[in-house]
Amino acid sequence: MQSAVDLARSGQAAGRSRRQPMSWIALAAIIVSLLSLLPLAFIIWIAVQTGWDSVSALVFRPRVGELLINTVLLVALTVPIAIVLSMALAWLTERSDLPGARLWAWLSVAPLAIPAFVHSYAWITLVPGLYGLWAGVLVSVLAYFPFLYLPIAASLRRLDPALEDAAAALGLGPWRVFARVVLPQLRLAICGGALLVGLHLLAEYGLYVFIRFDTFTTAIVDQFQSTFNGPAANMLAGVLVTCCFVLLALEVLVRGEERYARVGSGAARHWQRSRLGRATLPCLALPAIITLLAIGVPFVTIGRWLVAGGSDVWRFDEIGLALGQTLFLALAGALLATIAAMPMAWISIRAPGPLQRLLEGCNYIVGSLPGVVIALALVTITVRIAMPLYQTLFTILVAYALMFLPRALISLRASIAQAPIELERAAASLGRPPLKALWSTTIRLSAPGAAAGMALVALGIMNELTATQMLAPNGTRTLAMAFWSYSGEIDYASAAPYAFIMVAMSLPLTWLLYVQSKRMAGR
């Protein structure tokens, strides 16, 4: 009888232990989600404070119309080209007997290691007259198509070949099989990658400044620098946020609600690679040309400027200071973003429900906002409400955490899903306090996913420019800021070492991303 009483008490204690961490973790997730909505709330508040007459005068004017046309044309041209290019490369590297397919697959991902503004710097120094819309489309496609190639290639690896065999057996030709069987199964990958590319196009600043192509982001930064957070910059930010939400709505509409999963594991065999035959050389030319344009041009340009500058451009005292500050901000921001994402990741796996979906949506909304909007919101809040926090380390780290929270959240959520909840309950039943039980089981088991998320966040912070320029404390000089300073002075030789170091630091993280995508497909 005594043992039954003890067992009942231990069960009650375990139940209280499970409820207690749930309440504290849910409270932390709510606080983080509310903080993530600050930039959106700031835009609405500024619009209300400004008044409808002033808002309409600032928004409905020819300049905003020009920026809107530029933005729509940029997205409407870049995204379809990137989709077609990524699908062609993914099919060649994953489904055909293309010589060196694994090498070309890695080279199709490698452009992610080169910041977009470094792509633009390379092209504008190689072709000085490269300006305008089509220049923006060219450089944007080369810089961002890997965001589409990765999910499309991963989806192609996971498709069941039996479906295509059945369609072919019914008399459909190769093109009709692809259009009616393969393409519908790639819709999620295409929509997700296209959304990511579109949001990057809206947020990018440095790339379009180099080629003198005005977008909302470049106009906001210029307006901020000239009037220091005047109403015009805030209203432009409001229009930019609206464009982001339009993209999100379009992605949901195009994605639809079709079912993409099947019951059972499908065929165990792999598909047979298509034989290219006489088309081998023309097909081989596509990845070779893209590699030359997306990787060769930046590396050749950087190398040329390094040779032209000689040893004088390697100012090791300045470079060492910029490298140290970049690494510190990247590591500190990645750690803060990972800690902030932990409560949300935990309840998304352990306590799914309406509240969880609402809170998770708040975190993804802020991830879709451009860095300039988040920085502008934090500038206004600190100047008007908390002046001592303006241009401090705390403010810029908060900005990084808000901007890159979804990257940490996705990685953490996948790792926590693989940690059995029974271990937490066992630790709690043995008398450990809730936080210690959580730390000794789930958090430790999810450490690899947390490390991967931190790496992705750090990669984004190392290449971040606009938010760092607007929020960094006086005296801060990261690699991106130093590169931008020298290139703005048309001193391309002095900017080259910083571009080289940024690329060299990003390559291992890009390789990790490529390997992870292969593992997800069981390869």
UniProtKB/TrEMBL annotation:
Residues 68-254, 323-513 form the ABC transmembrane type-1 domain. InterPro entries: MetI-like, MetI-like_sf. It comes from the Bacteria. Pfam families: BPD_transp_1. This is Iron ABC transporter permease. Signal peptide: none annotated. It is found in: Cell inner membrane; Cell membrane. The chain crosses the membrane at residues 24-47, 67-91, 103-124, 130-150, 186-211, 231-254, 279-307, 327-349, 361-383, 389-410, 442-462, 495-515. PROSITE patterns: ABC_TM1 (PS50928). Its main location: membrane. SUPFAM superfamilies: MetI-like. Keywords: Cell inner membrane, Cell membrane, Membrane, Transmembrane, Transmembrane helix, Transport. It is a multi-pass membrane protein. Belongs to the binding-protein-dependent transport system permease family.
